[in-house]
Structure formats: structure tokens, C-alpha cells
Amino acid sequence: LQKTSKLRMTRQRRVILEELRRVTTHPSADEVYSMVRRRLPHISLGTVYRNLEILAQCGEIQKFESGGSPRRFDGNPAPHYHIRCLGCNRIADFPVEVSLDFSDGQMDWAGYRVTGHRLEFVGYCPACAHKIPES
Ligand SMILES: [Zn+2]
Ligand SMILES: [Zn+2]
Predict the structure, then answer these.
(1) Contact 73/20 with Cβ under 8 angstroms?
(2) Which ligand is in closest contact with the Cα of 72?
(3) Rounded to the nearest whole angstrom, what is the distance from the C-alpha of residue 55 to the centroid of ligand 1?
(4) 66-103: string of b/e by CB count within 10 Å (b at 16+)?
């Protein structure tokens, strides 16, 4: 909260944030770029990349890497889980409660200081599910 108020909101940064928060598709930087360009036709891809990184560092958005595919961005900064389609790589919010809290170091183990966790559900989205051959 302290850190968000310190972030200077340029017009470009605000538009990027607004566009990202309008969708729940967890777009890549390239996809954010084409969304933002509808409103800011002269913005560069580099500017979009840079602002996405800054917004993620400030906790306004989340970024996550999934395997070898390009990093994706999430306009929802609150902790929540995701499901990734193994057929088309689509990522959606998965509505199970985030109940684990590592903030007090209760999960520290073997010299590791545990600061958080990641859990990704995988499966097939509605568009891909019917294409999977039954085994
Ligand atoms: Zn799919
Ligand atoms: Zn999400």
C-alpha cells in the first residue's frame, strides 16, 4: 500500500494497467502490447515490457513464468491459483481458496527460509477437452 502510492502513474502506465485489469486471460507482454496499442498507437513494445516489469515489482500486477513459454501477466495482484491448459496453454483463475500462509516462517525447512509457494493446476480447457482422445 505504501509502495503503490510511491509509484508514479504515467499515462502509459495507467493505460497498461487498465487494459490488463480488463481481462482474465493472463496475457503475454506481446498480447498486452496489442491491447494497449488500440488506445496508444505510438507506444513501443519496449515501453510495454518495461512498464509491466515495474508494475510487477511494485505489486500492482503479478507476473509468472510457465515452463518455456513467454512470461504472462495478471492484473489481479491478490494471491490466487491458476489452471493451465495442456492443450493450448491458456491460463485461467482457479477458484480454490488460498489457505497457506508462510509469512511467519512456520514452514522453514533444512536451512531454507520459505517465503511463499506456487501451485499450478493443469488439465484441458473446454475448447481442448473434446479433442483429447480417450485412452
Ligand atoms: Zn485449451
Ligand atoms: Zn490470475
Answers:
(1) yes
(2) 2
(3) 28
(4) eeeeeebbbbeeeeeebbbbeeeebbeeeeeeeeeeee
**Euclidean distance between CA atoms 18 and 13, whole angstroms:** 9
| 80 within 8 A of 61, measured Cβ to Cβ | no
As a whole number of angstroms, the distance between CA 70 and CA 72 comes to: 6
DSSP 112: B
SS3 62: strand
Q: pLDDT tens digit string along 86-111?
A: 999 899 999 988 776 666 667 788 99
Centre of ligand 2 to C-alpha 135, Å, is: 31
This prediction has a pTM of 0.79
63 CA to middle of ligand 2, Å? 9
